[in-house]
Write a structure and sequence with these properties.
Elements (H helix, E strand, L loop, with lengths): L6 H9 L5 E7 H5 L3 H5 L10 E6 L3 H13 L13 E6 L4 H5 L10 H15 L6 E8 L7 H11 L3 E8 L10 H10 L5 E5 L5 H11 L3 E3 L3 H4 L3 H10 L8 H19 L1 H15 L6 H10 L3 H9 L3
Parallel strand pairs: 1-2, 2-3, 3-4, 4-5, 5-6, 6-7
Bound molecules: flavin mononucleotide.
The site of flavin mononucleotide has 20 residues, from β1.
Length: about 325
Amino acid sequence: MAGFTDHPFRLMCRRFGADYAVSEMISAKAMTFGDRKTAELSALPQGDSPCALQIFGHEPESMAQAAAMLASGGFDGCSYAEKPAAIDINMGCPVKKIVTSGDGSALMKDADLCRRIVSAVCEATEPYGVPVTVKIRAGWDERHKNAAEIARACAAGGASAVTVHARTKEQMYAPGIDLDAVKSVRQALPDSVAVVGNGDVSCYEDAVRMLEYTECDGIMIGRAALGDPWVFDEIKAAFEGRDFVAPDTAFRVGAARRFVADIAGVYGEEAGVRMSRGRAAHFIKGIRGAAEVRSRLNSARTLEEFDAALDMLL
Ligand SMILES: Cc1cc2nc3c(=O)[nH]c(=O)nc-3n(C[C@H](O)[C@H](O)[C@H](O)COP(=O)(O)O)c2cc1C
């Protein structure tokens, strides 16, 4: 998730049971221009594996060029301690600025372009042994639910997995999901191409419903992890018949504290605290007194002030 799933966040999710992660989306075009800030989004520190790097764009050539750079690590500012697990292609972003450029979910209007992009990216990453995966939506809008067609095109281009966010572009992030979209993709593809179901999974029951109804091979969790990164362990524990103890206030505050310290360790104290304000607020949502603490977090400038605000909850 852009603005959230940087490597400190991914490492935290892994500590809480996530098996696989995907980077924030990275502009293919900006990569090819050698943009340093863009390259930073691809950092893969020790332990951040398996992690796919997601690219967005719409030109097969620049997508392929960016994918080769990311798969090989051959670019200025590359900081890999781990090899990318895959190059993931974004065909689902609904944000206006992205779709008006022809990127993200706008690609779903042109199945042949999707195939050509995936094929070009596969060819570019093949020498480095890095597979290519794709993230799509149910379709553009209610009248154009073509996830199965797009998934087939991506598979024809060489994609080894397809994640389906079970909403159309027009629906953005609400209302509820359409599990039939995921099911149609699973039915359209050979078993050799994995299908991952995504959308509104935040507990064991949601996960079971997604897996059983659609027969998909795995589940991707987005927003539920923002405030409850332990959602992964909670769901896995239920599948494995293990007890899961819901985190109490002290645990939540401790997790927020560690997360902010990790972010500050990467980006420096001032920037880290600034970047963490909204993100730490997710961890304490629902705790008595959280509203006041949130406003204190918003004016905190140092880690000490941040910690002092969080202490108010204990
Ligand atoms: C703030 C935000 C940023 C997102 N950024 C990305 C992104 O960069 N790439 C992507 O494939 N999906 C992105 N998504 C979509 C999520 O990955 C996911 O498909 C969607 O939120 C539905 O899943 P969920 O209900 O588990 O959150 C983003 C979603 C949100 C809310």
